[in-house]
Design a protein that fits this description.
single chain; alpha+beta; 4-stranded antiparallel sheet; 3-stranded antiparallel sheet; 4 helices; 36% helix; elongated
């Protein structure tokens, strides 16, 4: 069908013609809550296992600083996973104005440099990058840290792992191809 032709099954007034980015659709992507709760529990159990070495230390003893640091990190990571699992908001929302990231807030399409679907066997996922000099409205320090760390490994500024999203990353790519296909890297 050529660009000027219309599907004969669709009456002329039913679906308005929209350009990419003018869609009124809203796409929401939620975390895989079950996997996040499992991660929360596993990290908590590891913290308890490490803490149990106080009562039955291995031969040679336990360095209390390393023990305290390990228990603190594992407990914090467990709490963060539990918080993410219990948050009802979507991880990512895409609409005609831009993306809404649960951590970084609204990112307008004008500030986005690109988005990409990573088909890696090690770390498949979805990511987006902002134009140089632009930052999201919330948690700017965290975003700058993520941008630097991810750029060292060639990843986009913000990443979502496939296994931690309820429906994977393919629906995100399909939605963004509908909304802003020109930004795909």
């Amino acid at each position: 069908m050529s660009e000027g032709e219309r599907n004969s099954e669709t009456p002329a007034g039913d679906a308005p013609e929209t350009a990419p980015g003018d869609s009124a659709e809203v796409f929401e992507f939620h975390p895989h809550r079950g996997k996040l709760w499992i991660l929360c529990g596993a990290l908590g159990l590891m913290a308890l296992w490490l803490l149990s070495s106080v009562f039955s230390p291995p031969e040679g003893g336990v360095d209390p600083v390393a023990l305290g640091f390990g228990v603190s990190i594992l407990t914090l990571a467990s709490a963060m996973a539990g918080r993410a699992a219990s948050d009802p908001r979507p991880v990512l929302r895409a609409d005609a104005e831009g993306l809404v990231d649960r951590v970084h807030g609204r990112v307008p399409w004008e500030d986005l440099q690109s988005w990409t679907l990573r088909r890696s066997s090690i770390s498949p996922g979805f990511g987006w990058s902002m134009k140089p000099g632009r930052v999201p409205p919330e948690n700017v320090g965290l975003f700058r840290f993520q941008r630097v760390m991810n750029s060292l490994t060639g990843l986009p500024h913000r990443n979502y792992r496939r296994k931690l999203l309820a429906d994977g990353v393919e629906p995100i790519a399909e939605a963004l191809r509908t909304l802003r296909p020109e930004l795909e890297a």
